[in-house]
Amino acid sequence: MTDTARTPEACDLLIEAGYVVPIEPHAVVLEDHAVAVRNGEIIAVLPRSQARERFNAAQVVSRPEAALMPGLVNAHTHNPMTLLRGVADDLPLMTWLQQHIWPVEAAVIGPEFVADGTTLAIAEMLRGGTTCANENYFFGDVQAAVYKKHGFRALVGAVIIDFPTAWAKSDDEYFARAGELHDQWRNDPLIGTAFAPHAPYTVNDANFERVRMLSDQLDMQVHLHTHETAQEISDSITLHGQRPLARLDRLGLVNDRLIAVHMTQLTEAEIHLCAERGVSVVHCPESNLKLASGFCPACALQRAGVNLAIGTDGCASNNDLDMFSENRTAAILAKAVANDATALDAASTLRASTLGGARALGFGERIGSIEVGKQADLVCVDLSALETQPLHNVLSQLVYATGRQQVSDVWIAGQPKLVQRELVGMDLPGIIANARQWRERIRHVRA
Ligand SMILES: [Zn+2]
């Protein structure tokens, strides 16, 4: 070996961890490994003993008691609604939505509400190890700017809905806004845009056809709530003579761009149709449980080969953005629903909440696993805590025993966002003070 061959390679960041959970390959834990990062990208995953010889790192972060895993992807959320956390609870979906959420929302919605809610959500997500969100809310332009400002990765949905809102007054205006959003962010490394038709019961055939045509032309994902409740299915049969998925299929939307959220009501044939067409399903177990919407057959979907992702849904219906809690609920609920304790094991659950989410969003080539060439969206979880001792099995602890407060460090595209639990570049007391003033404003509009 020559001297030049031994010259260390430069890198920006070397993270050494007791355990690296790469997700790909599946169900693997690499003990005493390091991840090297240059220009925001992962350039090596190697044993810790070799890392410092091979790399001359501008910064070394050593976390011998931690698991380093890909950032969690929250595959369905309405982050501005974080400001409506706890406004109304313990009600069925339609009563909750029509009598409580929509009237309050109508009174406060606007760019300021959306920016402040998104900021609060970003801080909460970072402290819980989430590095990417699939967003579905009005004023996508405002959200995208806030995500970008904080260096947070997101797929921002342009909402399409059949009635006027503060965001758009007519069908044409909804589509014009979606086009503007897409054009503005089309080549951004952090922000992507999707169509977000609200649900089959709030979007007519003509608008769905328009979404289908434009999503094909512009290569945009379609982020849609569907098959959320039994009522939605029976209403669709009454109104359209078809179950929602059959109707969407007639309209050409059941394809690999579809991000189908909830899916609690599915026949065998529908599960196979989703697998065949490459549909991604986002399971939001806590939202479904809290609203008594039904049970997504997560295990059957996964075993049929459907790409499964996990989401919290908005804070108004969950009431948090805690993906560790969501993972645990998903894994446990899947076993009860399938009547099979082997359903959705720990490794599969972690995969759904990282790589599964990334693939659903169309980001599968960029994020979701710790692999060379992917973006360094990484999370350190401190497993030395009492609550995760003794450490018999890292994957088991991460799904069944870890709380989000054990997240110590977070990077997005190699940039530090949380260091030893301190947010970087975000004013935590200021964010909390701002949330408090929103409580007063919302209390006032409800009085
Ligand atoms: Zn939702």
Automatic annotation (TrEMBL):
UniProt xrefs under SUPFAM superfamilies: Composite domain of metallo-dependent hydrolases, Metallo-dependent hydrolases
GO molecular function, one term: metal ion binding
Residue intervals of the Amidohydrolase-related domain: 68-415
Keywords recorded for this protein, A-Z: Hydrolase, Metal-binding, Zinc
Family listed: Belongs to the metallo-dependent hydrolases superfamily. ATZ/TRZ family.
Protein name (record): TRZ/ATZ family hydrolase
Provenance organism: Stenotrophomonas lacuserhaii
